[in-house]
Amino acid sequence: MTNSFKEKLGQGGYGSVYKGKLNNGCLVAVKVLNKLKGNGEEFMNEVAATSRTSHVNIVSLLGYCFEGSKRALIYEFMPNGSLEKLIFDADTPKGDHDHHLGWEALDEISLGIARGLEYLHRGCNTRILHFDIKPHNILLDENFTPKISDFGLAKICNRKESIVSMLGARGTAGYIAPEVFCRNFGGVSHKSDVYSYGMMLSEMVGGRRNINAEAEDTSEIYFPHWIYKRIELDEELGLPSIVNEEDKLRARKMIIVSLWCIQTDPSNRPAMKQVIDMLEGSVDCLQIPPKPYLSSPPKSTADSSTTLVSIQ
């Protein structure tokens, strides 16, 4: 199928992804998992979660291989790669970053991801919490339609459950909701995905990682705070590629939505249904939220690898 693993698409903590072709000519991405860690929970999660879904904004699982220690997942191929490559283009010189797609496309992508998440939280027979929403895990098809992928850390719960029990924190530093690693902030729920979505939306707007330890001005290290100040004082946003009033309104709307999503108290965050309504509505109807409370996340948050950490 993959022509002896000839074309590698990517590499992650889980293993490698290769481009392949089915007999009918359909292009696929084949994710070959490393020798299994633990009891293979991530593999089982991925198969269990994605096989329950059918939505335009969720990547389609076409099949899987389970033979001895060899495990692979077969997904539809996404020609435009991940959102991460699009918003953090390493080839772009510093200070000269330009959104490749423009604000209208970014707006559409943010809405598509929100619809996919809302479907996971409310549209399936069972509620699926993803726990690893970040630009790396959003794939783009030939029309730049976003699809949520990588369900290795997902939790499938009863729809009546609002709070889920977890032994440890799971996710990627920089996107993990406060309550996931410290229960003092509240219970873990679908609102934890909302937080990760907000952090990702903020990176889409800024065209940079939220935490930039190299920033010359300390106020610019943590992007959500820097942009909050500009919104609060109604200053120029100072963002790349805003060329007209429409762009400015789109950017402002996305910023306000992201700031609501990253509120420290989960009960202050909107559900994904409200996020969709906010993104589809007029920016004039949006209130500016309170300033997000976490002021300086630990340095390690720049690490972008997925983790499943035990908390004593």
Task: Describe what you observe in this structure.
It contains 8 helices and 11 strands. The protein has 312 residues and is of the alpha+beta class. It folds into 2 domains: 8-76, Phosphorylase Kinase, domain 1 (2-Layer Sandwich), CATH 3.30.200.20; 83-310, Orthogonal Bundle (Transferase(Phosphotransferase), domain 1). It has a 5-stranded antiparallel sheet with strand order 1-2-3-5-4, with helices on one face. Strands 6-9 form a two-stranded antiparallel ribbon. A hairpin with a 2-residue loop joins strand 1 (8-12) and strand 2 (15-21). The longest helix is centred in the middle third of the chain and has 21 residues, at 103-123. It is globular. The chain starts with 7 loop residues before the first strand and ends with a strand.
